[in-house]
Write a structure and sequence with these properties.
43% of the residues lie in helices and 17% in strands. With 630 residues, it is α+β, with helices and mostly antiparallel strands.
Length: 630
């Protein structure tokens, strides 16, 4: 056997040498630079040393010297690419030289007015709505690479991107009962395995993720939603992450899962109203780091502050860049009111505000944003909290949610330059269900230290225009007839921007402890409920205020307004009374409502606010307990 193997090996070696020898005789040794051939490897090396050869950048023809190559490229460039001014091509150097000077003079001597008129004519022909729609979708690197908006991503797109870009890992991410994203890591063994996990998902233990799932029947599936795919900005190993949906043992969407509850809420809203529900969040948080005692900001006056008085602007903009890379549609970011020091640490409040999108996408974006902010803070050595309250007398952090109602792509919130009947009907629903919405948006005892009378956070159930003392605010819109851009920039022509698309209404009670999917689902239910109320417009009129309700002269108005609950236990009571509305159309499952009520009542905080009062030491203990909420 050994002799046979040795003989076989000898035959293979002889055959290989013969093959190489015949190839060299038939074809020579080819220079990669100019295409010339040599009779041997040694001769080829001598050729390369002796000649500064290369290929034309325009036609790929090879030349043995750089001088010949340069002469050729000068002509070839103009023959292939043409004149830089008019685009014409030329067969020779002489023709190009004769043309270029006259052409240059012609184009450089065009009157400025004519150039401007030409540019304006070109701009008028561009469909900017399509351009902006495309640009709006260019949030993530995958979008640019795949050449399509994320909502059109397919499994084949994900596999193709992974294969072509050296991606070595995939992460599944999904929200759990504590409101935070959980992660499952996969090493990509091969394409077949990748296809399997993208198609079939994976099993997880539901009882470890949600309190309402029993250990005896806890297995769930998680399946990735391809439209949520993004490059993990923190992973050292190239990684793509995707948000997932939950499925039960029968392969059906888990009725009580957060993302499925929101999906059902949006579907019910559309079925009842014939319109679509959109949302956006204002994500407030505190950055906490050692105090340098340089350029101190004014206590509680940090709103839109600039560096160096605002210390974490650069951190915020880096967060925004990462969120955009992950597909988040950001409106802007800025420092917020809260700014103070305790025990040698600076507490600086910041906010990142998003653009209105479909409600499901809005929730996904907020979840990923919180994950990114926390991870980047960890890298910088900062602490981050979305906690509703930090200490007595200082600004707490909210999670205000703006909403708009859209039909066939058009905003329905304005009519004739004023708030529409559609908008007022939706607001009426929020006025009715405001007490129980706190069960989704204010979920731990510190929430109710933020929702106290006579501070910026709301406590009374009312709404108004441009009024920050109300629960639901109609922000300043762009209904003015004047062209502010032209007034600020007299050289500009009159603009014709459709500002009606920008109008929203804002729910101001929620905070960073919120379960984001449940909260936005609850708001969709409330707005839908307005269209199911026979007296919706009467409710809207009754709860409208156009004054600061906290001023003494408006005490009579204040007395007639209902109050938000003042504890988690009180919030649970409100949800118990109104649960049928949330369970209608099979939006919130009874098991989910039961679980929320049970959790809220477990805090036993019915008198906690009165017990602690303004005791800063006790407040800090409470904040520390719920520091990493949401």
């Amino acid at each position: 056997m050994k002799k046979f193997l040795a003989l076989a090996l000898a035959v293979i070696c002889i055959f290989s040498m013969a093959t190489v020898s015949f190839a060299a005789m038939d074809y020579g040794y080819v220079c990669d630079n100019c295409g010339g051939t040599s009779s041997s490897a040694a001769a080829l090396q001598e050729h390369i040393k002796a000649n500064d050869c290369g290929k034309c950048a325009y036609c790929a023809q090879g030349f043995e010297t750089s001088a010949l190559l340069a002469d050729h490229e000068y002509v070839c460039r103009h023959a292939n690419k043409g004149c830089d001014y008019c685009g014409n091509t030329f067969a020779s150097n002489a023709d190009y030289d004769a043309h270029i000077e006259a052409c240059k003079a012609k184009y450089f001597n065009i009157p400025l007015g004519k150039i401007i008129a030409t540019v304006k004519d070109l701009l008028a022909k561009i469909d900017f709505s399509a351009v902006f729609a495309t640009v709006k979708d260019l949030g993530g690197k995958l979008v640019g690479a795949l050449g399509k908006p994320s909502k059109e991503f397919t499994k084949a797109d994900i596999i193709s991107y992974i294969a072509e870009n050296g991606i070595r890992m995939v992460n599944f991410m999904y929200p759990a009962g504590d409101g935070r994203l959980k992660t499952l890591n996969f090493v990509i063994n091969d394409i077949a395995y990748l296809d399997a996990i993208l198609t079939c998902g994976e099993r997880v233990d539901g009882s470890s993720l949600f309190p309402f799932i029993e250990a005896g029947s806890s297995d769930l599936y998680v399946l990735p939603r391809f439209r949520t795919a993004f490059l993990d900005p923190f992973a050292e190993i190239p990684t793509i992450s995707m948000l997932c949906s939950y499925f039960n043992k029968d392969g059906e969407p888990l009725e009580s899962s957060p993302e499925q509850t929101l999906r059902k809420a949006c579907r019910a809203f559309n079925e009842v109203t014939g319109m679509d529900f959109q949302a956006m969040g204002e994500l407030e948080y505190y950055v906490i780091a050692p105090d340098t005692e340089m350029f101190p900001a004014t206590d509680q006056k940090g709103y839109h502050e600039s560096a160096p008085y605002a210390k974490f602007n650069e951190f915020r903009t880096q967060c925004m860049a990462y969120i955009a890379q992950a597909g988040g549609q950001i409106k802007y970011g800025h420092s917020e009111v809260g700014n103070f020091t305790i025990d040698g640490k600076i507490y600086e409040q910041n906010e990142i505000e998003f653009l209105p999108v479909n409600a499901e996408d809005a929730a996904d974006q907020l979840m990923v944003a919180k994950w990114i902010i926390r991870n980047l803070a960890y890298q910088h050595g900062y602490d981050i909290t979305f906690a509703p309250k930090i200490t007595a007398g200082k600004a707490g952090s909210g999670l205000h949610v703006h909403m708009r109602i859209v039909k066939e792509g058009q905003n329905q919130m304005l009519e004739g330059g004023v708030l529409s009947k559609t908008a007022r009907t939706a607001i009426a629903g929020m006025m009715e269900l405001a007490p129980s919405i706190t069960a989704f948006g204010n979920t731990n005892p510190t929430s109710y230290f933020r929702l106290v009378p006579h501070q910026e956070a709301p406590t009374n159930i009312c709404w108004g225009d441009r009024n920050r003392s109300v629960l639901v605010r109609v922000p300043l819109g762009w209904a003015a007839k004047s062209d502010m851009c032209k007034l600020a920039n007299p050289l500009e022509e009159e603009s014709r921007y459709d500002t009606s698309q920008k109008q929203t209404v804002e729910m101001r009670s929620p905070d960073g402890s919120a379960d984001i999917y449940q909260l936005i689902a609850g708001l969709a239910v409330a707005c839908r409920h307005g269209f199911e109320m026979a007296n919706a417009l009467e409710v809207a009129e009754k709860t409208y205020v156009n004054v600061n309700i906290h001023q003494k002269e408006n005490e009579d108005k204040l007395k007639n307004l209902a109050q938000l609950p003042d504890s988690c236990e009180a919030s649970a009571d409100c949800l118990e009374k109104q649960r049928a509305i949330f369970e209608k159309h099979n939006v919130f499952s009874p098991a989910m409502i039961d679980g929320i009520i049970k959790k809220l009542r477990s805090y036993g905080d019915r008198t906690l606010r009165a017990d602690i009062g303004s005791n800063q030491e006790e407040m800090l203990k409470l904040v520390e307990r719920y520091f990493h909420c949401g």
